[in-house]
Amino acid sequence: MRKAWDARIFPLNSTQVSIHSLSMSNLQDWIRILREQIEVTKNLIQQHRRTEFLRTMDEERFAAIRRMHEGGELRRLLHPRSSSLHTPFLYSSAPDSFKVTGDHDRVLRLEALLGRRGMIKRQMHDAYLCTPSSPSYLLDLIQDATALGLTCVDVRGEKRLVMTVEDRLTAWEHNLSTEAAASKQCCPVCQAAMIPITGVHQSRRKIHWWCDPCSKFVQPKLDCAEYSSIPRCLLGSHIPRVPSDASDTLRRPISMHDLNYLLARLKNRKAPGPDGIPNELLKHAPEEVRRAMLDCINCILLGQRPPPNWLGGLVRFLHKKGDTLDMANYRPICLQNTIYKVLAAIITDRLYRLSERHGLLDPSQEGFRRMHCTQRQVQSLHWAFEEASRTKSGLICAYLDFKNAFNSVDHAALWRWLDEINIPDVDLLKHLYEGSHYYADLPYGRSAPIHLTRGTKQGDILSPLLFGLVFNALLIGLRHAGVGCNAITGLRSPARGFADDLALTTSTADEMKTLLRVVSEFCRWTGMRINLEKSFISSHDFKTGKDLPIEAIVYEGTNLQRLPSSAAFTYLGIRASIRGSVQAEKAHILASTRELLGLARKHEYLLSQMVPAVSFVATARFTYSAPLVPWTDSELDNLYKIWLQVHKSAWRLPLSYPSAPFTTPSEQGGYPLAHPLVLLVQSLAKHVETLVALPDGIRADTVRRYRLLCRSCGCHNERELAKHLVAERHPRKCPIARLLRAGAQLGIDIHLPKCLSLGKEQRDTSWFGLKVRIQTTCEGRVPPQDIATVINSWNAIYRRLSHGGRRTPRQIFDASQPATDRWRLPNELSRNPRWLEPLRRVLTGMDETGLFPPLDRGEGFPSTAIHQALVHDALRALETAGPISPIFQDRRWLHIRSSALFHSWNTHLTTIFRQDWQALPVLPHTAGRRDPVHALIALGLVADSEPTVTRTILRELIRWIAPHLRSGPSRAMMDVTPSVQPLSYWLSPLSTSYITFHTADNTAGVQQFGEYTVSTTHGIVHISRGTEMIGSVSSTRWRLLIQDFQPADILKALPTWISQVEHEENTVGIPSSQFWHGLRKTLLAPCVLGCNALVAPSVFPMALRNWTTPEGWGWAQFQLADTWLPQGFLLNLLTANAQEQQDLCAYLSRHPQWFVLTRARTLSLATKNMLTAHGHCLACYPRGSLIAASKGSWRKSSPRAIRSREDWYIWASSAAIADEGYQNRLKKALRDIPLTSDGVVLPDPSDPDCREIDLGPFGSLYQRSGVIVATDGSLRKDGAMGAAFVSLQGKLPPKSAAVHGSKLSMRPEMVAILMAVETCPPDTALTILTDSLSSIDLLQDLQREDFTVWIYHHPLRCIVEQLVRRLNARAALHCNTHFVKVKAHSGEPMNELADALASQAAELSDTYQLELNPEAVYFYSQGTPMEWNTRLKRQLTQTAAARFTRSRLARAESPGHTTVADLSKTAQWLIRTGQGRKQLGLYMQSAPIDNGTKQVLQTIAGTFPSQRRLFQWKIADTPTCPLCGQADETQSHIQCVCPALQRARIRAHHRLAQHLWSGITRVSTRGFEVYIEQTVASLRGLPASPAWYHDWQRMCDHLDSYVPDSLEYDETDSTLAGGLGRKRPDAWAINWRSAKLYILEFTRPSDTSPTWDTSTDDYKKAKYQPICDRIHLLMPNWTVEVLPFSFGIRGSFNERVWKHNLDKFGISISDSDKLMSEMVEINMKELSAIYRARQAALSQRHNAHH
Fold first, then answer.
1. Long-range contacts: 1543-1551, Cβ < 8 Å, 24+?
2. Do the Cβ atoms of 277 and 338 come closer than 8 Å?
3. How far apart are CA 1518 and CA 1529, in angstroms?
4. Exposed end of the chain (fewer CB within 10 Å): N or C?
5. Residue 589 — pLDDT band, cuts 50, 70, 90?
6. Which residues contact 272 (CB under 8 A, 6 or more apart)?
7. Helix, strand, coil proportions of the chain in percent (round to 5)?
8. How far apart are CA 1201 and CA 1072, in angstroms?
9. pLDDT surpasses 50 at 1457
């Protein structure tokens, strides 16, 4: 749409001026004018969109055909567009005939009038008006009859089947009007129900309302007084209301910034509303239109009524499921006007904020609320089932589905309820609904406008919130009905609601009847209805195991559908029974996956489309229900096997294809598919986060269940729990337990949210820790049978001891006693367990060193340390003589509470005192308090007077209670009232003072120079002449040139310059700016000659093309006279031809100091002789150096550098380097020039050579005071992220770090900004350059008064919270922070360097440590906490694959199998070690999903459909190769032998060998020179070193004529017959300095045999051993060796041999790994190329025969 505005397709300026001139009182006139302009604009826009659409369709069609051709997908069908909306036959209840009553003569007159037209019929003594072909006639007939004084009565009976298009449209209008009318709408005269009848007047359809008793058309009446009395069951003091003194309002005007934010939130490619204006049109609207929209919206917010056209909608109906003849099975989709969406978004945001702030939404409502989800509700319902099962009580569950709920709420009831809860500005909401209507777009035409007096608007963002507020009345009424099962997640409510889905739970039938009566009262008041066909009830008595009688439970006299307790029902998409069984959900997932398998096997789509889609569909169902369904390990493995079958089908592989490539980790060459266990961890982690996300009863119940889990397992932290749970055979139902168990199975530590921590207790020794200590330290100290008895009975041990009040091992240990008496075990227990005495002996013999940490170690928060010190002080005081009561009069005891259960405390005291301890005298003020701390204080205060309370007992009690001490309230669980909501406790807005944002393009502009137009956008200048586009250059280069030349002269020369530069960069290469900068700083050259003006380095004060033409800058300072030329100038001869070289070098002999840059290929002989005569070669930059500029970098000033294609040389005159010391320093400086791929040189405004900085788009920013930094983030395809920032002039050290978290592009950008803000001193001004517009928009949104509500559940919430806190702290110190948007990859040097550092940081292990989100689940990978992200998922996928592979190997080596050979051949091939499987796995992870990768998978498994395979599968008649006729065509034959494919194999061999030799040359550090495909005879032509020249020539002459003895060497080698001179290995590597010669041989054989590599290497060594022997004989000082490089067709290679060979060239291990990975990638591409060549040959052969 931006093109539309650029094409000036919008209202003229004069119209906009007239719009602005109107006053706010003339809003309707403004709307009328805007509508007129919109109509004109809409037509132009539609024409423009049609043209764009056709062009786009042509491009997509061409691209699709090309993909099909290149990808081998010619069999893919081009599916036509879907047909129009479904047009079923409809049954209609609309009136089609009326009985006429009245005077007989008048009836005869009417009959005479209408009889000839067949519109009145006689039946006995009655007359009937019949429906004609058009419904408008029916209205005319009724009007004619009433004009004669007759009465018309509707005689409708059963629904009739309508056939014609007109009747169908009328039937839809009748039903829609009936549904849209309020339930209490009636005739104003007789109070009877009314009938909607369609009329057509002047081609406009309209709905009229007919009153049958009155026999006339009247306007229906709705008496709002009928809704004024809210049912008593819904009212009471418990209703949450907005306080009367609250300042909340919905009518506050918005700013332009708010409007821009709302427009930016509109989604693209969405269907427009009735006005036809798409979202894109307003998103890219000019400032004038935005200002008009702002004025209009603010007028409505301040009291004006919205225009009627804004209140209309366009509805389309989509068939959901079920009977197509039932109109209830169609889902309406309503399209609203775009500008109305903006207005509704404003009101919705404010109303939602108000509702959450004042607790207007009940905690049991999970629908349409932030941080709420369906899993929370289903989990709470399942916990209700578990609670009933645990307490052995009865449970009745009713699920109620409301029929057409959103369209059923009467507006009057809605407004009455909003008034009841004191919602401000309800009249604004009424204005949006008064006069609201919609048109139904049907297959039969567009309906008449349907006016709404009932139901919320479809397609309106405000509707879900309004429905939730009125539905909240029902939830509140059910909560306070005083009955029901209140065990649902601690919410103390018998109901749970998600939107309109309602679940009720009670213990008895009478209680359920009471709840249903509340529902009935609510429905009668609001007009809502229960869909009894979709509602059901189920019951079960967990004590007797039978179903409870529920026959008497009815709803308004109608029975609900009854389900037996064993039957599963679907609630919010998850199948479960009231008994808690989820087997039906498991069966459904397996069945749906098998169904998907059947569909995937028949697909003919592109692999790139189908493989990801099928994987997503197959796993989506599992991941949704996984948090609530306890899958066993065997069930997960079975599901994984089905997923593998689906995955094979998606790849179009047969089901018999081996699963090994998809189950083997990448380290072994596999392409693993994620195991369900990985997705289970992901789903459970997210589920646990949602359970504790809000401070409500669900969080409290989650905490309680976690503590019960810890207590039942005897563990104190996540790590101990994971070790305990992974040893259990079956998973528990608790989602936290299953998360920890699954994490332990995958070998990763999990950190739960902070609210689940046990605090200090989790650092104390647990029963599980004591068990581990026994296992590790008792061996050799205690008899083994005692250890075995204790370990085997451990569950019974800690349960018996903990139930006796000893919740931790510390409570049975007394360090003050002798070693033999420290463990205080009871002398006897009931039933005399056999483990008691062995336990006593084990504990006595165990090493106790460091078992219990000291209580006063001072860890944790200061308050905790104080309480620990109190315990320490009390224990020491009790060991000394003196009164006891002062010890317990310390006021610190008042701030201590205990989390220990009072029952455990009571049991422990009873054990100690041997009597009921409550019989002891206690202080009066402690009576009634059930807190162990208060009881301990009471005992301590009476100890001086009570002999039974001794010091020993008090010390025992303090040690027992010490691990359970807490600060604050006694309950650790958060006791939250429903009024505490998520918007009331977090995140203050970003300060608007001292924090500014700049996002405008300050380089934009248009200039006209004669016939040339120069336009600038984002730092790039575009030059055009008329409609012809000449070219584009960077704005900095343009400004630099126009300083010395007239713009007209530059524009005339520009086409020639552009063509020259394009030719130079395509053929030779242009030096990078980083390289030029290094030469300038090293050589101190004042001038450079030989550069095109567009690419001349600006770092030089003068830069010219040649001596005679003023192309460049500095021409005014340049003198043509021979008397003065700048000394030490630099000549660029890289792109100069022979004549240009002669002209440029003409003055070299006259001037003593000069430097020249050349390359070997274009350097003429005359120029080389001249340079040799007057100077020396100073430095050489070999091929592959990062000294060339990237292609097109001169257009946008991009500093990116690429590798040069050949050697570049620096020459210097003899006078310039006369001093030998200076010459050596210069050589070293040239070698040390920093050369990086990013090519960035940090700008320095103080450097006079950085002239282009001031002329650049950000030159003014560099002059600002304070610190200037550039930030950037990097997100790679594999999910790795990095963040970095750099500062100008090094005021802050550059910083970069890896970033972990969910895969989100904005995450590393925000982390980089946070790093810069944290590093910068808080009292120093800061300017941040960032290319992330989304980050700037997010921060700007937080400056709004109504900042975005969704930020509370944003994945970057913690980062944003920290950043806002630090920015506000800077603003509080009156320190400026400026954010400036820069265009990415546009040549801004600081941004480019930050981008390069961020890309490198993505590979680092150093992670930027953010403040941990206390409500998030973290995974510890190598000690680094991280949230769930793509990298972690990939890591766990590899771990699960390795686990699956180990289990497969274990089964193969089990007694039931003999050897590993029982595995498939593919698995055996993959598990071979030292064969380069890691590099193969890396390639498979990054390989595209296409037909080539499929062929690689087939080749790895040996299942490529060769003729031999097709013959085995009984598809082909013969295994013979169809190309060469060989008897057996296998994939090895195709890749290595077939003579018909020899050219393709040679090409593959040459490409692999060339890359290997070039890689050795590039990264070798020992000065080897590689000569490719040289015969032995041609060695004499090599440039041998002078020291070896004669020996080398003699050796070559000898080898050329030497014929080895046939007895000594292979006679079959034909090349030996004419002497060794005919031998030609693949390459020679020679190091003249160290006297080493290596014969390099590359081979690409089949790698099927286990000894393929050794046999191939031995053959190659034997082949060239005669040459080695003769050279060593003739030149004994030389090291001569054959280095074979064998590379299998499937990417196999001997890692040991390759690394040994590459090490001889001085190549590091990292470079070797990189080179081998590149070889694997090239090999797989060539493998596919050979298969394509085979297919082409077969096609050619087929065409030749046909």
1. 1543/1733, 1544/1729, 1544/1730, 1544/1733, 1544/1734, 1545/1644, 1545/1730, 1547/1726, 1547/1729, 1548/1644, 1548/1723, 1548/1726, 1548/1727, 1548/1729, 1548/1730, 1549/1642, 1549/1644, 1551/1722, 1551/1726
2. yes
3. 10
4. C
5. very high
6. 278, 279, 335, 337, 338
7. 45, 15, 40
8. 6
9. no
Measured CA to CA, the distance from residue 1515 to residue 549 in angstroms comes to: 64
Burial class of residue 1519 in the structure, from the number of CB atoms within 10 Å of its CB (0-12 exposed, 13-18 middle, 19+ buried): middle
Say yes or no to pLDDT of 1329 above 80. yes
Q: Which two tokens stand for residue 1161?
A: 């290929």
Residue 1324 has what DSSP assignment? S
Alpha-helix residue ranges (DSSP H) falling in 370-425? 374-391, 411-420
- Distance, in Å, from the CA atom of 977 to the CA atom of 983, rounded to the nearest integer, reads 14
> Contact 956/905 with Cβ under 8 angstroms?
no
1271 contacts 1283 by C-beta, under 8 angstroms:
yes
Confidence of residue 163 (pLDDT cuts 50, 70, 90): low
* Diameter of the chain measured on Cα atoms: 140
- 3-state class of 1328 per DSSP? strand
Continuous segment of H or E residues that includes residue 1733:
helix 1709-1745
Q: Residue 272: count other Cβ atoms within 10 Å of its Cβ.
A: 18
Task: Give the list of residues 6+ apart from residue 1336 with CB closer than 8 angstroms, or none.
Answer: 997, 999, 1330, 1379, 1381
Q: Dig out the tokens for 1679 from the structure.
A: 């090291």
The CA distance from 1176 to 505, in Å, is 95
3-state helix/strand/coil string of 984-995: HCCCCCCCCCCE
Q: How many CB atoms lie within 10 A of CB 509?
A: 18
* Whole-model pTM over 0.85: no
- Residue 1562 has φ and ψ, to the nearest 5°, of -70, -40
The SS3 call for residue 1513 is: coil
DSSP state at residue 547 = P
For 1509-1526, what is each residue's pLDDT tens digit? 999 888 898 999 999 888
- Strand order of the β-sheet with 204-211 is 194-201, 204-211, 216-217
> Position 369: which residue type?
R
Q: Token match 């050259």: residue? A: 1085
Phi, psi dihedral angles at 165 (to 5 degrees)? -65, -40
Cα–Cα distance, 136 to 1274 (Å, whole number): 66
| 1464-1479 tens-digit pLDDT | 888 889 988 899 999 9
1046 is written with which tokens? 């007239």
pLDDT at 17: 38
Parallel, antiparallel, or unpaired for β 495-498 and 501-506?
antiparallel
Counting every residue, how long is the chain? 1746
Strand partners, 1642: 1685
Q: State how far the Cα of 555 lies from the Cα of 535, in Å rounded to an integer.
A: 10
Cβ–Cβ < 8 Å for 537, 548: no
Q: Is 829 helix (H, G, I), strand (E, B) or coil?
A: coil
CA distance 1525 to 1510: 16
CA 1273/CA 1275 separation, integer angstroms: 7
Q: Hey, what are 1203's tokens?
A: 């590798």
621 in Cβ contact with 594 (< 8 Å):
no
Residues in Cβ contact with 729 at an 8 Å cutoff, skipping those fewer than 6 apart:
none
Helix (H, G, I), strand (E, B) or coil at 1009: strand
Rounded to whole angstroms, the Cα distance separating 349 from 353 reads 6
Angle at 1084 (CA atoms; ends 1078, 1088), nearest 5 degrees? 80
User: Residue 1444 corresponds to which tokens in the numbers above?
Assistant: 């699956």
The residues that bridge with 1686 in the sheet, in sequence order, are: 1643
Are 338 and 272 spatial neighbours (Cβ–Cβ below 8 Å)? yes
Please give the Cα distance from 1698 to 1679 (Å, whole number). 19
Non-local CB neighbours of 32 within 8 Å, separated by 6+ positions: none
Q: Which of 797, 792, 955, 773 is nearest to 876 (CA)?
A: 955
Distance CA 356, CA 349 (A): 11
| Structure confidence at residue 858 (pLDDT) | 39
- The amino acid at residue 1448 is R
Residue 308's identity, in one-letter code, is: P
